[in-house]
């Protein structure tokens, strides 16, 4: 038997635990007899037992960012707010200039804290996540990032030391989350729509291997966003 949450199917037992985390009261009648016995799911269970990315996204939404932070006790690496201006189209079809503040906060979770109480040993390895809000709905999101890859993407010297993980910035992390095949130096401008981007190239430049965007490109070439 499956339980469907936000159009994503889960095994019955996990689905029950997710529903208990999401709702204070019984969401539908046939769970009434067992509702008080259901134990809410933990973030560590999601991280270690749910491998499907879409299921994990829905599961994280069920427990919320505050509960995640309480469980894993993250350390704030850095936070930055960027003042932005973009062009919006009104329902009447008019163009207006919209100004807003975009804040990104980067956190580190210690490997021992991450694996405590599970059968998975992370040792000294840490994991990193970025917390930010949707600029139009104020809904909070959490994005996991590969700190080593973020550091390599933004390190012009092409070398990497172990301490560079904690030197990455929130803007480097959000830029890294977008990928392109357009070579560096060949982007004229970038338009962002949620988690999708549209890139205009300079001339007829040939595409190369897929790469992550750099902090410099995100700051200087992003001309419109919604």
Provide the β-strand percentage band. Answer: 25-35%
Summing up helix and strand content along with how strands pair, one would put the structural category as: alpha+beta
Low-pLDDT ranges: none
SS element count, helices: 8
Q: How would you sum up this structure, described in words?
A:
This protein has 226 residues and is an alpha+beta fold. The chain has a domain at 1-69. The protein has helices spanning 12-22, 43-49, 53-63, 65-72, 111-115, 147-154, 170-176, 215-221; strands at 2-5, 8-11, 75-89, 95-109, 127-133, 140-145, 179-180, 187-193, 196-201, 211-212, 222-225. The protein has a four-stranded antiparallel beta sheet. Helix 1 runs parallel beside helix 3 and helix 7 crosses helix 8. The longest helix has 11 residues, at 12-22. The protein starts with a strand and ends with a strand.
Structural features:
about 230 residues; alpha+beta; four-stranded antiparallel sheet; three-stranded mixed sheet; about 30% helix; globular
How would you summarize what this structure contains?
This protein has helices spanning 12-22, 43-49, 53-63, 65-72, 111-115, 147-154, 170-176, 215-221; strands spanning 2-5, 8-11, 75-89, 95-109, 127-133, 140-145, 179-180, 187-193, 196-201, 211-212, 222-225.
Q: What's the layout of helices and strands?
A:
Blueprint: E1 2-5, E2 8-11, H1 12-22, H2 43-49, H3 53-63, H4 65-72, E3 75-89, E4 95-109, H5 111-115, E5 127-133, E6 140-145, H6 147-154, H7 170-176, E7 179-180, E8 187-193, E9 196-201, E10 211-212, H8 215-221, E11 222-225
Parallel strand pairs: 8-11
Antiparallel strand pairs: 1-2, 3-4, 4-5, 5-6, 7-10, 8-9
């Amino acid at each position: 038997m499956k339980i469907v949450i936000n159009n994503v199917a889960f095994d019955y037992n996990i689905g029950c635990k997710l529903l208990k985390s999401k709702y204070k009261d019984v969401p539908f009648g046939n769970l009434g007899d067992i509702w008080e016995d259901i134990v809410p799911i933990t973030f560590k269970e999601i991280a270690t037992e749910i491998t499907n990315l879409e299921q994990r996204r829905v599961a994280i939404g069920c427990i919320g960012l505050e509960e995640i932070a309480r469980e894993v006790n993250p350390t704030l690496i850095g936070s930055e707010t960027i003042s932005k201006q973009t062009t919006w189209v009104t329902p009447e079809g008019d163009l207006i200039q919209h100004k807003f503040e975009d804040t990104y906060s980067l956190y580190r979770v210690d490997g021992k804290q991450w694996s405590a109480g599970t059968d998975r040993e992370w040792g000294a390895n840490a994991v990193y996540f970025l917390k930010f809000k949707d600029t139009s709905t104020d809904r909070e999101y959490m994005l996991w990032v590969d700190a080593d890859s973020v550091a390599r993407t933004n390190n012009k010297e092409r070398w990497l030391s172990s301490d560079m993980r904690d030197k990455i910035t929130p803007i480097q992390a959000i830029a890294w989350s977008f990928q392109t095949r357009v070579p560096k130096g060949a982007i004229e401008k970038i338009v962002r729509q949620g988690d999708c981007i549209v890139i205009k190239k300079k001339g007829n430049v040939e595409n190369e291997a897929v790469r992550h965007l750099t902090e410099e490109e995100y700051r200087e070439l992003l001309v419109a966003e919604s």
